[in-house]
Design a protein that fits this description.
Elements lengths: L1 E6 L5 E5 L4 H13 L3 E5 L5 H12 L3 E5 L2 E5 L10 H4 L7 H10 L1 E5 L12 H10 L2 E5 L2 E5 L5 E4 L5 H10 L6 E5 L5 H12 L3 E3 L5 E5 L10 E4 L4 H13 L3 E5 L7 H9 L3 E5 L2 E5 L9 E3 L11 H9 L4 E5 L10 H6 L3 E5 L2 E5 L8 E3 L3 H13 L3 E5 L2 H4 L5 H7 L3 E6 L2
Helix pairs in contact: 1-2, 1-4, 1-7, 4-6, 5-6, 6-7, 8-10, 8-12, 10-12
This protein binds uridine-diphosphate-N-acetylglucosamine.
């Protein structure tokens, strides 16, 4: 098992190009199953979750090749509608195959998906939505079998779940009728999935609003070859920017539009960060002393993203004043609090709120990642801490960040990947 060794206290500076978004690449690759063809997906991040998705596609009969951030998936010969349990348990996004296999083959068998342990994470909204669309869903123990054809009509989500919105968009493509998904999520990655689906020839509109319409077409079975570029990763950008701010640095990020991360930039600015942006470049510099942003509540887009909450929590330990962060999306997402306390942080959890007493100079020590974003937040803690930090269990971080150590070294961070003893 690998770990990161970090020598803290070095202000990060320089330039970094943001990679393609994990949360877009995963549903896009799943959607490639919905339409037979050779799909060339560029700017695909080289991360473990994408490797797992590649394995899923292969297990269903697709041919894949992944080189230089370009994943080519040939989905003309899909021959299975069952995702093996072992792969399902490794990643939450395996659930997307429900929608794409239904669209392509009229049936799908999956088991309950795995993923980061950040709360209960049921899939009831996905299942309820499929039922409203007219699919039969049968649950036997851990196994979920879906079959049928979408009858169209109106589907109302009880909560704007990102994954359920994406799953239902894909499932709706097999209908000959119009399907309207209401109260859906508006995240930029959904707009990106819509872009890919349109490239595949599907008739989808409304992505980015809370009403998405999918219209049936007769030629969905005809193979098409596509080429698509994945949208930039706003969560990766927010993570690197927090690293810059936490170390008192200044850096320029390319391939990231400020419009995708207004809530995050707004909070960083409240903390004293200077932000300048032009087209798809953002420059960020830390103030002499970070100050508390006050109260921050995570919420579905365009709110403050839950995926940036752990990084913000780390940042607030060093800012002057008291911060309250309310986790409004997941039940248990303060997983790295215990490790930060080991480093000297002063954090209390009261229900959904984390109350952070700032002005702490963190001390380096040996800590362990428990999930993807919480793990990244510990790396940020190590970069801003005094002395040496070792972060164990970085396989969690590998799921969603392409060579995080390399990127941080590019900005002058002293961080090294080692094999744990
Ligand atoms: C996606 C992102 C994840 C991000 C999350 C929220 C991907 C691959 N992952 O996850 O990084 O943290 O959005 O922005 O895009 N819920 C239910 N029932 C359901 C579905 C969800 O109760 O059927 C609940 C969840 O437990 C959670 C909340 O709804 O509390 C949000 O989940 P959802 O939006 O579905 O997140 P994911 O799609 O899993």
């Amino acid at each position: 098992m690998d770990c990161y060794h970090i020598q803290g206290g070095v202000p990060l500076a320089g330039e970094y190009r943001i990679k393609g978004a994990k949360n877009s690449a995963l549903p896009v690759l799943a959607a490639a199953v919905a339409r037979p063809g050779i799909h060339e997906i560029h700017d695909c991040p080289c991360i473990d979750d994408v490797f797992v998705m590649e394995e899923i596609l292969q297990s269903l009969g697709a041919d894949t090749q992944f080189k230089d951030n370009c994943l080519v998936a040939d989905t003309r010969n899909i021959c299975s509608t069952r995702v093996p349990q072992e792969i399902m348990s490794r990643m939450r996004s395996s659930v997307f195959l429900m929608g794409s296999l239904l669209a392509r083959c009229g049936e799908a068998t999956i088991t309950r998906p795995g993923g980061c342990k950040i709360g209960s994470r049921p899939i009831d909204i996905h299942i309820e939505g499929l039922k409203q669309m007219g699919f039969d869903v049968e649950i036997q123990g851990d196994e979920i079998k879906c079959r049928g054809r979408c009858r169209g009509g109106r589907v109302m989500l009880s909560y704007p779940s990102v994954g359920a919105t994406e799953n239902l968009m894909m499932a709706a493509t097999c209908s000959r009728e119009e399907t309207v998904i209401e109260n859906c999520a508006c995240e930029p990655e959904i707009v990106d999935l819509q872009g890919f689906m349109k490239t595949c020839g599907f008739d989808v509109s409304g992505g980015g609003t809370n009403r998405i319409t999918v219209r049936g077409k007769a030629d969905n079975e005809i193979p098409v070859d596509t080429m698509y570029f994945i949208v930039e990763d706003r969560i990766e950008a927010a993570t690197y920017m927090a690293a810059v701010l936490g170390t008192g640095g200044r850096a320029v990020f390319r391939n990231i539009r400020a419009g995708l991360m207004e809530a995050v930039l707004g909070v960083y600015q409240r903390m004293g960060a200077k932000v300048r942006s032009f087209d798809n470049v953002i420059e960020i510099s830390a103030p002499a002393k970070l100050k508390s942003p006050g109260i921050v509540v995570t919420a579905p887009f365009p709110g403050f993203p839950t995926d940036c909450q752990p990084q913000l929590l780390t940042l607030c330990t060093g800012a002057s004043g008291l911060t309250t962060i309310r986790e409004g999306v997941f039940d248990e997402r303060f997983t790295h609090k215990k490790e930060l306390i080991k480093m000297g942080a002063n954090i209390e959890i009261c229900g959904k709120n984390a109350i952070i007493k700032g002005d702490t100079a963190l001390r380096g020590c040996r800590i362990s990642a428990a999930d993807l974003r919480g793990g990244a937040a510990l790396v940020l803690a190590g970069l801003s801490a005094k002395g040496e930090t070792t972060v164990d269990n970085i396989y969690h971080i590998d799921r969603g960040y392409e060579k995080l150590d390399e990127g941080l070294r590019q900005l002058g961070g002293i961080i090294e990947r080692r094999t744990s003893d």
